[in-house]
Each structure stands twice: as structure tokens, then as C-alpha cells.
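Appendix B. Raw example, untouched.
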Amino acid sequence: MADTFNYRIDHHGSLVRPAELTAARAAGDADALRSAELQAVQEAVVFQRKLRSTVVTDGDFPREDFRSAVLDGVSGFRRTGEEGPDGLVRWVAESLPKANGPLLADWAARLTELTVIAPKASLPSPAYLAATTFQPGLGVASARELGEALAEIIQAEIELLVSKGVRLIQLNNPLLLGQLAADPAGPGALSFEDALAVEALAVRLDERPEGVRIALAPGWAAPAAVDRARAERLYGEVPADRWVLPFDQGTEAELDLVKALPEDRDVCLGVVDATVPDLEDIDTVMARIDAVGEFKDLEDAAVSPSRGFADVASRPLLSAEDQRRKIVLVETLARYVWGNEF
């Protein structure tokens, strides 16, 4: 799939929120919050442009966490007072969801006005939402039915985003890699087979304008060992253009995830750990990338941090300065691999 639209300096989408935005959200004044969001997004675009990123996002600044674009933008979900095993506030589906309007498209349109860099949008995947919000007896017949309804909403949003000029759309499902383990994690509310079918519905796009990529991030960390057959099923049944894979620990499992990827799919390697402030050794990371180059055309590759820096607004994984240093390192690594050809 080698072409000139690889968006090689990438990040997952969420950035550490500035203090002014955090304070405005805590104050509860809707007008003040909106103004703070707009200002923060404008500054985030400048920040990414200065760091030479080949994509630009709104940092998830207008959202509470990486799920919020959907959970806040559709009907049928109820926020509970509980926390799930991942530490996120738990939401439950009480009816099949219906979209109340665009989820991210309005913010994406602003990005196209602020910069000529390719806009990127990130959304939670429908299989992830179905697996974590389905609860029997609340008005939805099955997790699969819930997932399919969500897939229709997200697929329509992807089409709208593309029409607004977005060129890279990433769906996040932190659960999928656990199901690729040699001893896979329990399927929860959605089986592995159903998860693949639901994700496939969401990423279908009959017409892809030049340079458009639909990406899927199946998790933040590779399992201890990868079931190759299950990995090949994942890649084969979900027709995402780009797979965003963890590649920051130097394990054989990380390499196995890339080896199982079909030749016609892009890969974005999460080469720096977004959870620790210490910077990776460039020679060590380059040796890992070189190992990928032995079996994968690096013209179909990109590099990024391993995950978002603040997938939950109130729980940033690093300080803003440590985040900047990590993104600078990603750019440096990209220049080591591709020179200045972005």
C-alpha cells in the first residue's frame, strides 16, 4: 500500500489538558468551558505543528475521556456511579443507541480551518463500547445487537468526517489484544467472533478518497504470547487500512503482532512508552524498527507513542513537558527511518 499518505509522525489523539481547561471544566460554567475548549484546541494545533507532526488532532480537549464522543453524543446510555475494572466511570446501555447529531465532525471541521496538516479523529470502537456497556435485562437483547447499532452510528460518522476533510480516523478497542493471547482473556459481554463482526461493520467505507486511512488500535500492550491464528483472523476479518500496535517493550509478542499483519495493511508502531517519563534509547528503538524492516515494507509504516497521553482527562499519564519530549522523540525516530520524506 506504499504511497505518499502514510502520516508517519502520529499520536493516538489524546493530549494532556492545559490547566486553564481543567479549571474551566471543574467550574461548571458551560459558556466559559466552551471558550476554554476553543482556545485550548487552537493552542494544541500550534503545539503539534511546531513538533512537525504529520497529523493534527483536537487533543480530545472537548471530551472527558476517549469514549465521550459517542457516550455523550448518542441516546440510550446511562452513566452510573460505579467504576469498571479499567478505572473508567461505567455506563450502561438501556436501549439501542441513536445519534443526536455529529459526534466529532464539528470539531474536525475547525481543525481543517486552523491548519493544512491532515486532521485526525479518534473514536471508541463499537465492539469495545458494546462489551463494556451491555447489561442483560436493561432493554437491549444482546451485546451483538448493541454493537451492530453502534457500528452503524460510527460508520456514518466516519463518512461524515471524511467529507469534512479528515484523512485519518482511528478506532480504539483496548480489549482486543487480550483476546489474541495464547490463553485469551474471557470474552466478557461480546465474544471474539462477534467483536470482529462488529468492528468490520464500522470500518467499511465503500469509497476512500486518496490519502484516507481508517485505523484500529486493538490495545495498549501486547500479551505475553500471541496466538498467531487469532491475530490473522483479526486482521483478515476487520478491513482496517492501518493497525496501531504497541511496540515499546521489545518483546517477541510485539514483533509477532506485526508479522501476522497482511502485506497490504499499514502499521503504526507505538515505539515510545507513553506511561513513563524516561526517554527511550534511540539505538534500541531503531534496532526494533530494523527488525520489522526485515519482513515488512517500512514505506507502509508509521511511528507513534504507545497510547494516548490522557485518554481520561483527569488522569494524564505524563506531565505536559514529558509528553512534549516523547513526541519530539517520535519525530526524531521518524527522521532516522525516513529522513525528511514525510
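End of appendix B.
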